[in-house]
Amino acid sequence: MAEYEITTAGTREMTKFLEWAADEQWNPGKFDHLPFHAADPHGFLLGKLDEEPVTSISAVRYGADFGFIGFYIARPRVRGQGYGIQAWQAAMKRLDGRNVGLDGGVDQHDNYRRSGFRTAWTHIRYAGTPAGEKPAQDIAVVDAGSVPFGRLASYDRRFFPASRDAFLSLWVGVPGHTALVALRDGELSGFGVARPAESGVRVGPLYAASDDVALALLNGLSAAQQGAPVALDVPDVNVRAIRLMERLGLEPTFECARMYTGDTPDVDMAGLFAATTIELG
Length: 281
What we know:
Structural class: alpha+beta
Strand content: 25-35%
Number of strands: 13
Number of helices: 8
Largest sheet: 13 strands, mixed
Oligomer: single chain
Radius of gyration: 18 Å
Distance between the termini: 38 Å
């Protein structure tokens, strides 16, 4: 009889998560495994059937009361055999007692609802090369490293339900990632990160006090990544963000629902122009 075991994945094993996500056309970042693992070293579960990796799921704990599910994948040859649901159950057990979030594909919404999740909004992935619209002249876009990390982490906390300093410190510092902040009248008014992906460049997060700040950051991130096509996961409840994507000529290519088991977290949705990542929130 085949033996199925769920184990904790280390950074080396996490490359499987990225490979499988690429196979599913999710377009992960090429170096995501290091900052992802730093978010919660015990939060990535790898299922092995007779020692062969066949399932993945992440169940990342943030703070004392928030968690996020991602990377829920069963390899095609084992689908429909119950191994995926065992991984799901192990992940949810790990996050028991927390408000749990996830980004669910359209075809899985009903399954997630049966597990107690409610839709908060829809992320629309916009992709393409931004039109060359010039930003306002009074916005300075500089390297995020020029801002004290504590200030950056505090700003991130406005848009995310819990502190995530270990993740954030690597997210802005991994080679290949470009992290920029926008300053207006000396005040921190925006923050964005771009990273090379399997296809083009993923941008996230993108926080901005206004659409002209978001434009300035997006221009800077795109230029720093040699003008490669970008992709952003934009919450549909931020109408200004949607209008900016359309104005820049980016095209909707993919949708997923942000869902929670508890109340929708109280974050600055007006300033959230793109999620950090649909894998970890």
